[in-house]
Amino acid sequence: MKITEHLAQAKGTLFSFEILPPLKGQSLKELLEGIAPLMEFNPPFVDVTYHREEYIFKKHPNGLLEKVSTKKRPGTVGICAALMNRFDVDAVPHVLCGGFTKEETENLLIDLDFIGVENVLALRGDAPKAERFAAEPNGHSFASQLVEQIVSMNAGKYLHEETEPSFQTDFCVGVAGYPEKHFEAPSLKFDLKYLKEKVDRGASYIVTQMFFDNQKYFDYVAKVREAGIEVPIIPGIKPITALNQITTLPRTFFLDFPDDLTDALEKCSTNAQVKEVGIAWAIQQCKELVKAQVPSLHFYTMSKADATLRVAKEVF
Ligand code: FAD
Fold it and tell me: Which of 51, 54, 124 has the most ligand 1 atoms within 8 A of CB, as the residue to mutate?
């Protein structure tokens, strides 16, 4: 079923979450068993992230270095199939511009359609470490162009096809939104202009980057509506679970912690203490968001279910 249909039929705020594929060489069994307890909260959909290739330098016995490309977390398509097989959920693969030509994207979308995927989250993707984002030759530079390609396939239009009409896919397309602005955008107004472009080209819903101050989400929703964007805006929630996240989350995702949260985290000296503060914070955030009738609470689990499980038990 489409995400938009799940949202339209919901009697209240839904529960959904995102997982990461396991690192290359690890089995999927542990991940699937780990998230099984979350199924108690009837998630209608589960997102699976996509991770582009990275370049590493392999040293040969003669001392020469060879630049090779490797994927640390392959398997997004296979995990989607496994999720749909094992649990009664819709799997939502993330589809990226970065690292893909348009032809490769088309082939990926054909595979996804054939395994029964009905929803995709269309993203530009981040640049490989310490580089600026660059599209592949004959790839997309922005998520809006990827949305356009997916919507074209929904209309039966494939690349380099002379004979039309072809089989029409029927993907529901989601896109990303940033309550604290995308880090490359010079202003929120600029960012919203291009968010609107994604929606105008056919995106049906928005999932936000994580945030820790609900007021930022509420202000963002108001500005998105002012910009003439009407689609559902699903808030992204991340319970903080480890000491290092106090610095890595703001640095990686370009966001601020509110003062109250920072004060509470500053008093912690162990991962266990941070996790208690993080879970308590996420619970009060989620309760307020449910009261505000948000469409779904979408948890960034990082494939570790226990913190999300504790929050969900208090909220649903
Ligand atoms: P876009 O919408 O293309 O925007 C990128 C930047 O370009 C913005 O600053 C925007 O304002 C600007 N812009 C857009 N269009 C134009 C234009 N026409 N001209 C000029 N400027 C423009 N990354 C992964 O690698 N894998 C994942 O699985 C993944 N999942 C994510 C899930 C969510 C919910 C979110 C919020 C992010 C996720 N990301 C993921 C990270 C995402 O790929 C990065 O944040 C990326 O830098 C931007 O992606 P986007 O789709 O928002 O890009």
Answer: 124
